[in-house]
Design goal:
The complex is a heterotrimer of chains A (115), B (145) and C (491). Chain A has 115 residues and is mostly helical. Chain A contains 4 helices and no strands. Classes of the chains: A mainly alpha (115), B mainly alpha (145), C mainly alpha (491).
């Protein structure tokens, strides 16, 4: 299972890096959001316990912590997701503004229009 | 989108998502759920309405003062944090139990009000982004024409 | 004081919300913003005086026990940095009110700058690595929006460059945190320090430390990651550039200091030659980069890179003496560079340009504004009674005491180049002929520049006092066990 997670992270980073190096703004934004997904998965992987239960108490008996997945990375991931959501929203607004002003979202084209 | 099935289903789904998000909001402090997820759920329900009916129609329907709503939500969450400061620690949660007539024992957690603040922020931010994106005539203040 | 530690985070947050709600009433908004900044500065000063005795204050948010919850901590370094941030942001906001008064975008400026202040002060206060990431992002998101302030193409380009570079850095920050968490299972700084020391020297930990060095150098604009800084300083509005040069880059340096002494003292010993090289290359790059520039703001931006190299040089010595010099440098440079960027903005307001040749003859046209710039340039060049001289002096002294002769010699040589570019720049700006006619500028702009520039003189004449304080700060942070014990014994 951890292999599956690692391969997913690798694929996401590859796709994200490829998209981030494109010329169109919208592709760059998508690329960076893929990159942030990859890092989020990586944090999940850092708290990995094979075959752990999800960290929700079913009863009020004292649980054995070794059998549960560490909940702290998941809390961190939630925070990271919210932050990357905010940044993506900001970038989309910037891309939209650029598109409205220049009728294109191609970086090279914009630079040419700027002269 | 001109799909009859979607148009028929969407209003029903809206009610279901609203009820489910309310459930998540109320359920959140000890079990899976909470303000963030509930807020996302509500926003998704409204987005589905938006997709189903016309963008202009959606804009007219949901053009509420979202900026105010998220400010108040953020202020509510900050106030809950300050309330915890009264007992010595910022963001400290506390629980109060009341015995109401007819209803019985009610447990109120300060964490719940924090969640309500988060809920308001999430719904309002998502929908203010959407109103900005969807309304083609809206010009963001200060932008060059 | 323990109870009031969240104030530097909460006050800007609450103010920002309130400012956003009253954004259609200009007078109310400005008064509220000024009042909040004044209260914030007063609190920062009282925090500074409280930490002076050597106490480390701890606030456990949500009453979580030691290694689990988010902890706010304040030692002398935190106190110093919070005062820096509060004072400089207050001065820049006052300056901005001078020329934003008739602008539409004014209504979002005030909330954003308070969110930025919240992020900056939170980053200084927090004792938790992941929380540091969160405050970094709060700070960065508001900075992104402020950089694209008028949405014209140049500013969009700068904002996109800064945003994309910092997105890579943020992603790397998270990767670093996940590496750390997988190895030691904690994110509390004090707990990390203990556990990393117990783990002993490990190659993977050095890699993790390197990731954090990369992330923080991006914020601090050290050599390979400095590319965003010149355009961000020169194209964004002046008050934002001044906050960037005065405070934001110092957040990166602050985090490197925390890493070097508290979190990764072992791995940073291994990385020391590399940090030293980075610092020296940054010094050289910044000094040489000023030479071909025509724009006053770009010269100041490259000079910022140069000066950040000097600060990183002090940090890279990894000794109490180098740390003392670095802290002296941070404090004096923060006030100096923000005063100079605001001064450049003042000159821009007066003549309508930042191009040195078009400016020409400022001495005759606007004597007071150009005198303020003169103080700054003399201090940057390192002329004795001013603060810039002493900051370089203590740094070189520390370098020679430790026997880093070659590196310190190079730093000294670049000091000569900085002497040259500061003088020629001032000469072209003040003594040239021709250029545009001078216009009027509001009094608040003059007063905020004078306020910041006066510190160049105060820290020059009171260098002994500031050195004593820097020594106190350094003696506290070079003994991480004080910080760790304070966190462990926190109530």
């Amino acid at each position: 299972m951890i292999w599956f997670l690692s391969i997913t992270i690798g694929v996401l980073v590859t796709a994200g890096a490829y998209l981030a190096m494109q010329r169109r703004l919208i592709q760059m934004v998508l690329g960076f959001s893929l990159l942030s997904h990859a890092t989020n998965l990586m944090i999940v992987a850092s708290g990995w316990v094979g075959d752990g239960f999800s960290p929700i108490l079913r009863s009020y008996k004292a649980p054995d912590p070794a059998t549960y997945v560490d909940p702290l990375p998941q809390a961190m991931v939630l925070t990271a997701i919210v932050i990357s959501f905010a940044v993506t929203a900001f970038l989309l607004v910037i891309a939209l503004m650029a598109y409205r002003s220049f009728e294109t979202d191609d970086i090279d084209e914009m630079r040419r229009l700027k002269g | 989108m001109r799909s009859l099935i979607l148009r028929t289903i969407a209003p029903i789904v809206l009610h279901l998502t609203l009820i489910f998000s309310l459930f998540l909001l109320l359920y959140g402090h000890n079990q899976p759920g909470g303000g963030f997820i509930a807020g996302l759920m509500t926003a998704v329900g409204i987005v589905l309405q938006w997709v189903t009916f016309d963008a202009d129609d959606g804009w007219h329907r949901y053009n509420w003062p979202w900026d105010r709503i998220f400010s108040y939500g953020l202020a509510l969450s900050a106030c809950v944090g300050l309330f915890g400061l009264l007992s010595g620690y910022f963001l400290k949660g506390s629980a109060y139990e009341f015995n109401l007539p007819f209803i019985g024992e009610v447990e109120v957690l300060t964490a719940f009000f924090f969640d309500v603040g988060v809920y308001a922020v999430v719904v309002a931010v998502l929908l203010s982004i959407l109103t900005t994106f969807c309304d083609r005539r809206a010009v963001i203040r200060g932008a060059p024409k | 004081m323990n109870l009031f530690l969240p104030v530097p985070v909460l006050l800007p947050l609450v103010t920002a919300i309130a400012l956003f709600l009253v954004r259609h009433h200009q007078k109310i908004q400005e008064r509220l913003s000024n009042a909040s900044l004044a209260v914030n500065l007063a609190f920062a000063l009282s925090l500074l005086s409280a930490t002076a005795g050597g106490n480390i204050f701890i606030h456990r948010m949500g009453m979580w026990p030691f290694p689990f919850g988010i902890i706010l901590a304040a030692d002398r370094l935190t106190g110093t940095m919070v005062v820096l941030a509060a004072a400089i942001v207050a001065a820049c906001t006052l300056f901005a009110q001078g020329y934003l008064s008739t602008n539409q975008r004014r209504e979002v400026f005030h909330p954003l700058i308070h969110f930025q202040l919240m992020g900056i002060q939170g980053a200084f206060m927090t004792g938790d690595l992941f929380n540091l990431f969160v405050f970094f992002e709060v700070m960065l998101i508001s900075t992104y929006a402020l950089l694209a302030f008028y949405y014209n193409l140049d500013q969009l380009e700068v904002a996109l460059k800064y945003t994309f570079l910092n997105l890579v850095a943020s992603a790397m920050f998270l990767v670093g945190i996940s590496f750390l968490y997988a190895q030691v299972g904690t994110v509390n700084m004090a707990d990390l320090s203990v556990k990393i020391r117990e783990l002993g020297p490990q190659p993977l930990m050095v890699v993790t430390a390197f990731i954090f060095l990369f992330v923080f150098s991006m914020k601090a604009a050290l050599f390979p990651m400095h590319l965003w800084l010149p355009s961000a300083h020169s194209i964004s509005p002046t008050h934002i550039g001044a906050v960037l040069a005065g405070v934001l880059v110092k957040v990166g340096i602050y985090s490197i200091i925390r890493c070097a002494w508290l979190i990764f003292p072992g791995p940073f010993k291994v990385l020391q030659p590399m940090i030293m090289t980075i610092a020296l290359v940054t010094i050289v790059w910044g000094a040489l980069g000023t030479l071909p520039q025509r724009s006053l703001k770009r010269i100041l931006a490259y000079s910022t890179i140069n000066q950040l190299g000097y600060i990183a040089f002090g940090v890279a010595l990894l000794s109490p003496l180098g740390m003392t010099a670095a802290i002296f440098y941070i404090v004096s440079h923060a006030f100096l560079k923000s005063s100079m960027l605001l001064g450049a903005g003042l000159n821009q307001k007066l003549t309508g340009t930042v191009d040195l040749d078009e400016m020409g003859g400022m001495m005759a046209k606007a004597p007071y504004a150009s005198a303020l710039m003169l103080v700054g340039f003399l201090s940057l060049a390192g002329i004795p009674p001013l603060s810039g001289f002493f900051s370089k002096l203590f740094l070189l002294q520390a370098g020679f005491t430790q026997g880093a002769y070659l590196a310190t010699g190079l730093a000294l040589l670049m000091g000569v180049i900085s002497l040259y570019y500061n003088f020629t720049t001032y000469q072209r700006m003040a003594w040239g002929t021709g250029g545009n006619e001078a216009r009027e500028a509001p009094a608040t702009m003059y007063s905020s520049v004078s306020f910041l520039a006066s510190f160049a003189v105060i820290f020059g004449i009171g260098a002994a006092w500031l050195y004593e304080w820097s020594h106190l700060v350094a003696s506290q942070i070079t003994r991480p066990e004080l910080y760790i014990n304070a966190m462990r014994n926190a109530l």
